Amino acid sequence: MSGDRVIRGHVGIGPRVMGQALVAADYFSARYDLDRINGVFSRPAHLLCGQSYVGRVLVLLGAKGGVATAWMLRNMAAAGKAPLALLLNTSNPIMAQGAAFADLPFMDRFETDITAAIATDDMVTVDPEAGIVVVHGR
Amino acid sequence: MRLDETEQAMLAGELGEPRRWALRQQIRVGRFFDAEDFVEIGQVHLMADAESLGEAGVEFLERLAEAPAEERRVRVPTMTDPRGIDFDAYRRLGQTERMAELERRAIAAFRAFDFLLTDTCINYQTVMPPSLGEHVAFGDTGSTIYANSVCGARSNFEGGPSALAASLTGRTPRYGFHLPEQRRATRVFVLRHRPRDLSAWGALGGVIGRRLQSYWEVPAIVGVEQAPTSDELKHFGAALASYGTVALFHMVGVTPEAPELPSVLAPGSPRADSVGAEDILAFYRSFGGAGDKLDVVVFAAPQLSLLEMRQLADLLDGRLVHPNTTVLVATSPEVKAACDRLGLTRRIERAGAIVLKGVCFYQMHAREIGEAMGWKRLMSNSAKLVNIIGGYGYTPSLATMEACIDAAVAGRVPDKAGT
Questions:
Q1: Given 3.30.499.10, 3.30.750.24, 3.40.50.1820, 3.40.50.2300, which CATH number is that of B288-410?
Q2: What is the ipTM of this complex?
Q3: DSSP letters of B112-152?
Q4: Predicted confidence (pLDDT) at residue A38 exceeds the cutoff of 70
């Protein structure tokens, strides 16, 4: 596809996927930020409050909050209420542990601020094994 | 990652499917963080409430627990974090039989693994604190930051699946705070105002946590002239971990790895900030509005120590909680037994509060409880709880324990909260 941009990051976890991005300069915790029953961001102060994250490539600054996300990602996937993939500038162990348990595509440590390099609704391919994200031209 | 003979045998499935799964999970995480090898651990603290596990997580545990006993038994002592159901109280809180059944299934699986069902997030106060330099795998942010910072143990945040894996293999990938160079302070905070009570220590943790951006930042706090109590450090650390995803702090002259500032600083010149009374007051004011009808007051997150339970009993003596307000108090099973024996439970419940054991409010399907009970306005003296609970549909306020009790008796959120 013409105009594709490749962004390099650290080698990640999970399978290669392609999907539509949902981006915010904010942080992520499944326990603190989400209504996991309805598949929307629910913490009032979150920049994505009210928006559905289901099936989206979720692009955020980093991890915040507690440890529950490590269990929750798998249950969210089983219930059809998970993001398609998760991209963070900086992870904590919990996100990596949860992604490994859920086999959810996950990457961090990019060469650039990933929340500035990708815009909401961009089509992106996430290839954790290769450590790259491709932003497809429109 | 370099694997020793035991690890190779686990990965090959020679020690059974649970340990094969566990080592594979740990290798995936270890590679992600560039760990070179594993480190053996002394104990595990495992967070696995049924709300987080969900049906998929419980089914996973049940399948793993079907393995023969010698293949599924933990290799190191493994303590459990609070559960989501207090079986003596769940019906009066609007929790359903479906929730209770999911919890029963999870507990049955835990027994098959031979976990110690401590059901507490204050294991470092009530069961056995880790020792200086001991490598552990702790799985509650509050217990991890306390173990790392106050005890000088070595742990990363080990979320449920990874804590389970660590219990089955007896080791964890050597990265993050298992490495001495990662434990040095990257930020300095000069304290200009000493917090006066537990909620203010939590607020201080929240103020600093909000200024930190990543798990890999380690704050050093200077200016604490007299050592805080264990409960003060507990509230401070729990809030710091909650707001900042921080797993380690140093308090110069207080915590064991920071006798003085230079010895704990990372190379370079870490940025220095100051924190004063105005920052703490602004933190309190960032929550909730005044004058509303108060639905529920929660003392939890972390569970209350015996000393906090006594303080609460003293404050409630001779008073009665407003009929439109519910007061919940969560503590560990060990502390609850001590409170029963010492008459504290009776004094707290005589005022109309409900004492819960082995649970913590936000791990109890708090959204569904709120909807069932019609609860929206919540007060707590826990900075950690008010951070979490907004996402569950509550409008929280932070206040001192005294102010929370006054509000519970009046049935209204007070005009002024905080210090």
A1: 3.30.499.10
A2: 0.96
A3: HHT-B----S-HHHHT-PPPTT-B-EE-SHHHHHHIIIII-
A4: yes
